[in-house]
Amino acid sequence: EYQLDFSRIESNGKVLGTVLLAFDVTEQAEAERMRREFTANVSHELKTPLQSIIGSAELLENGLVKPEDQLRFLSRIHQEADRLVALINDILRLSQLDEGGALPHEQVSVLELAQEAARSLTAQAAAQAVHISVTGIAGTVFGVRRLLYEIARNLCENAVKYNVPGGSVTVEVAETDRDVTLLVRDTGIGIPEGDQSRVFERFYRVDKSHSRAIGGTGLGLSIVKHAVAYHHGTLRLESQPGKGTVITVTLPKEPTE
Ligand code: ADP
Fold first, then answer.
1. What ipTM was reported for this prediction?
2. Total H helices, total E strands in the chain
3. Which residues form the Histidine kinase domain (predicted)?
4. How far is ligand 1, taken at its centre, from the CA of residue 220, in Å?
5. Is the CB of 151 under 6 A from ligand 1?
6. Can you tell me the distance from the alpha carbon of 112 to that of 139, in angstroms, rounded to the nearest whole number?
7. To test the ligand 1 pocket, which listed residue (121, 158, 168) has its Cβ within 8 A of the most ligand atoms?
């Protein structure tokens, strides 16, 4: 896509010639298109739980719900409100990432972050009878603690959420001379091949009905992708439906150009 600029060169009232400048704005146009698409998606995602809340509240207000069903309607309202809060939190995280800018860098142990993430999921994992283990070396990188935590937390949370009863999540931290790798392996439901390249897109969820029951915003992996890119790292996904998923994040120990 090009933006054209046409100008006439004059000297003492005499036209000497004309200049046509063509600016390549493909990148800006693409960014603009993505912003518009994101806003449309956000509006849709926020509207769905709100409509459900309004609908349930109206029925309750008008006395149209039998007493024995009232509690169920109230919990639906509560659940949808929780979903809205989760969505707004994820959207805020993403927009902070989009802004980029200078965030405070420090030496961070990826192993500690993974342990912290696993601890925060203890209750959820126990409820699903999923076992989590975290092993490896400290794996210290110079980066933004909050963002690096988001990577570990979102990957571990998915590994628990999309697991099966009695399944396991194995987190391993390793290093080479230049990089630290964080590997999150689960024995869960897996991701069909056709969806594997799309799960990092904003709001993309594999099986809408199944995913809805599990709960989530469809933003977790796009936060991971952005946070990894911010640190000039790479991401690899391997998955087999019915067997499980392995996601490997490689992060340079020192910031690279
Ligand atoms: P969500 O909030 O839905 O979990 P994510 O962006 O974190 O959003 O993930 C996008 C989709 O990718 C999920 O809805 C799920 O369908 C799929 N997914 C992510 N991680 C896993 C995993 N470890 N195993 C199976 N499916 C996964």
1. 0.98
2. 8, 9
3. 41-255
4. 8
5. no
6. 9
7. 158
As a whole number of angstroms, the distance between CA 245 and CA 185 comes to 6
HSE-CB at 18 with a 13 A cutoff on CA atoms is 5
Q: Which atom of ligand 1 is nearest to the CA of 188?
A: 24
- Decide: 199 in ligand 1 pocket, CB within 6 A: yes
C-beta of residue 211 within 8 angstroms of C-beta of residue 232 = no
190 CA closest ligand 1 atom index: 25
Atom 11 of ligand 1: nearest residue by CA position? 205
